[in-house]
Amino acid sequence: MLAIKEICSEFDIGGRYLEERELHVGNINRTFYVKFERDGEEKEYIIQHINKNVFKEPEKGMDNIVRVTEHVRGKLKQAGISTRTGVLRAFLSKKTGKPFVVDSNGEYWRCYRFIKNSITYDSVEDLGVLESAGHAFGEFLNNLCDFDAKSLYTTIPNFHNTKERYKALHEAVNKNPVHRVELVEKELAMAFEYEELACKLQEYLDSGKIPYRVAHNDTKCNNVSFDKDTGCSLAVLDLDTVMPGAVAHDFGDAIRFIANSVLEDDPDFDKVSLNLEKYQAFAKGFITQVKNSLTELEKQTMNLGVFAMTVELAVRFLTDYILGDVYFKVKYLEHNLVRTKNQLALARDVKLKMQTMQEILEKYI
Ligand code: GN1
Ligand code: MG
Fold first, then answer.
1. For site-directed labelling of 270, which of 8, 107, 150, 173 has its Cα 20 to 30 A away?
2. Which atom of ligand 1 approaches the CA of 155 most closely?
3. Atom of ligand 1 nearest to the CA of 25
4. pTM, two decimal places
């Protein structure tokens, strides 16, 4: 891999390089924080290596990101909100004028302005911060509600198509390339037990009963940046998967991550549960932002989204475990299996709490 300093020199950012450090965030791309100095001022940037194994056509993906961030920037300006902190800005290559650089190995890199004094959290305990995260994702969708979803390039086909995710699991089981199927019989049985309910949201989408809209599609709380001092949300990050999707996918993915009592890869499965206080805080921030643009049925399917996304992640982690860890970054041998068990435990709890979740949601709908 090329030196980050050299990659930086290809972008139109200028100044004197001071330091870099890798940020170990996300399961797909590699991310680096870089500091420069210009005219006596510190300038901070994020350099990201785009995983081509996952994002097959980085140029088209970057085109999505530029169009979407421009749209959001316009909305923020209208509302008098700072565009320096409220939305990502991608820098251009000095040579090509494109929002990415291709290195001599054919690898793709992008460069964003690092949002000053910002921080991201892998887990959040403070209910105010959780509400703010909900607000951020809800507002992001709201700002894009007049953006033509169909005009976006689909960076990963069938990304949240739960039925297709099950198909991929079946295929992995049949292939069994690294002889792990025999180790996961219990998990497979549980995943298949949940299949019908987990695929219901997809059926609503397939039959047109609920619409495809512009969705973020990866609403983990570490994909929002917060002001270090005030705890207020600033911008939504990680825009590679912004493409047509269901609002319930975004709500569900956020809840399965943020309202789990433990991290998604915590091996203490007895501690896994859906924390209803956290659920309520996020839901309040999110739903109050999006409710005016949702149809009745969409409102009724939000919690189905929580179940579907939790099961879908279990299915994706399990598929990857069976295939020999080819997609998600893993830190140890059983990492994907631990993630699977964690998400299955969460799905069980979500199913038990559906009714209570709906009662909470009604307050904000
Ligand atoms: C990946 O890269 P990161 O951590 O933001 C994945 C999400 C999963 C998540 C699980 C493009 O997101 O779909 O929910 O891991 N992103 C992609 O932690 O597959
Ligand atoms: Mg991320």
1. 173
2. 11
3. 4
4. 0.96
